[in-house]
From TrEMBL, chain A:
GO molecular function: ATP binding; ATP hydrolysis activity
Domain ABC transporter: 11-247
Top-rank taxon: Bacteria
Alphabetical keyword list: ATP-binding, Nucleotide-binding, Transport
Pfam families: ABC_tran
Name recorded for this polypeptide: Polyamine ABC transporter ATP-binding protein
InterPro entries: AAA+_ATPase, ABC_transporter-like_ATP-bd, ABC_transporter-like_CS, P-loop_NTPase
PANTHER family: PROTEIN TRIGALACTOSYLDIACYLGLYCEROL 3, CHLOROPLASTIC
Automatic annotation (TrEMBL), chain B:
Superkingdom, taxonomy of origin: Bacteria
Protein name per Swiss-Prot or TrEMBL: STAS domain-containing protein
Membrane-crossing residue ranges in chain numbering: 164-185, 253-274, 280-298, 310-333, 345-369
Residues annotated as domain STAS: 9-83
GO cellular component: ATP-binding cassette (ABC) transporter complex
Record key words, sorted: Membrane, Transmembrane, Transmembrane helix
GO molecular function, one term: phospholipid transporter activity
PANTHER family in alphabetical order: ABC TRANSPORTER PERMEASE, ABC TRANSPORTER PERMEASE PROTEIN-RELATED
Organism: Roseicella frigidaeris
Amino acid sequence: MAEDSAAETVIRVRDLAARFDGRTIFEHVSFEVRRGEVFVILGGSGCGKSTLLKHMIGLYPPAEGGIEVLGERIDRLQGAARTALLRRIGVMWQSGALFGSSTLAENIEVPLEEHTSLPAEARALVARVKLGLVGLSDAAGRLPAEISGGMAKRAGIARAMALDPPILFLDEPSAGLDPITSAGLDALIRQIARELGTTFVVVTHELQSILAIGDRCIMLDKEAKGMIAEGDPRRLREESDNPVVRAFFRREVLE
Amino acid sequence: MSAGAGAAARIETGTEGGGRRLAFHGALDAAGAARLWSEALRAARGARPLVLDLAGVTALDTAGAVLLLRLEREAGGQAEWRGLTQEPLQALVERTRAALDRPQPRLAPPLPFLGRVGEAAWQWGQGLLRQVTFLGEALVGAGGALPRPWRLRLSELLRHLDEAGLRAFGLTILLGFLIGLILAFQSSIPMRQFGAEIFIPSLVGISLLRELGPLMAGVILAGRTGSAYAAELGTMTVNEEIDALRIMGIDPIVWLVLPRLLAAMLVMPVLALVMNLSGLLGMGAVMSTLGFPPVAVINQLQNWLRLKDLIGGLSKAAVFGLAIGLVGCRAGLGAGRGPRAVGDAATAAVVGGIIAIVLLDGIFAVLFFRLGW
């Protein structure tokens, strides 16, 4: 389980640049994520937060620079080595991305079925445990179309956790949720991080969430086309002298 | 946390205090649990007391914890846990136990066979009723739009005419030519025995103009356009765009359905005509290989084909177009939620469209017979 070396780096992003059709989304982005922390990528709409996340999980190839996840270059791995690394990360997509024709329990069983040789009974039990962990025991037999947005996000987290990965990536966990549901999700993230020692990389622009869950964060900016801040979000709120960072944390209108 | 977490999992079984002791070694992760599952269950069955010795376990994850708790249940819910000293692992087991102990929802029992038949019949009847309701809504919408034709968006109509009509020409010509060719060629084999090959043009011509032209054009329209209508409107329904239109005080029937219905009705006679002509060309090609000059074929066609064969076929085609458009739009607007809804709507549009044109064709056959056409 989690080795107690708090400073161990599990993700290293070096001088990353993202470009689409010659248009630069961001460049010179470098940071490290340490084991067991909740790391938040924040920024306004359109600054490339989700794009950065998709680079970190190896979905987009970097235009420049590289990404190391658990000591492996996720942007260069191929074949079986890549699959082995992907088993050790879990992703919750913005809208849950649950498979619409399968029940929640079946959704969680998909990675178990694909990547382990557990018998059907064991898969069903693990799915039950995961749904119980996110508080969805009652909804195991329901289809994604029959549940609310907050439930879909929690089910998305349960599916991402099916294989007990050491790193979970969450894309906008609180987007489109009411404050109470959103706070519940934040509490769940903290609980999982504390109890399982899971490292979280969370993309969000919800101020409340950032302050509630984030151990460290980086902030991206559309104008600067890159990182404009890095550190503890509570300290950034108090101490940053970057006007964009200040405006973001204080919900001010930027002149 | 499975990768590289120590040696392959194994169990040692022994007896202790009249019961059984299972000593686990190695990584009890998903792979380990999968390997040991049946062996461990066999060993634990009915063992009282059961001792789970975990001193040799190097790693444990949810799957491993599930296995241990399952063993406990196998032994009648009582087991002595030994050697699980690391606090996070204890917490993991307790959390897994709590999650497994939560009550599970009960599923409704499946209906008996008769019940399923009844449900299917009821659904079918409801579907038919909704289709008729939709036809009524479309008629009312059309009636409302007649005095204010500018409310029908011309650009939308032109787009649908292009997509349903012009872009279907290639497929229609290809299909028509091949059908003419095949019909002529296949009928030439028996006709030759009677020296009646000269009647092939009239046979193919009448079949095409009266029946096959409109029918095949209808199949093309149902496959290409009916499904597209259903998918487009279905996606709009799923995205709540239809609700948005309604709330803006815009009737989706006038805004979305009427241009599509009008386009389907207008293009169908044209498609049927294209189908007829290319079919006749295909037939002509076969006739020329059989040694008949074009003039003989044309003479034969002029002798046998009447204008009302053509007009009857083309007006049938227009009605088919209306039916396909109605079924397609209705399937789209009635789509449920979720990603499967759009696929289901497209399937329903094609199947429903083809069934509708075949049924209508039967009605037309009776009608034309009564009219003496």
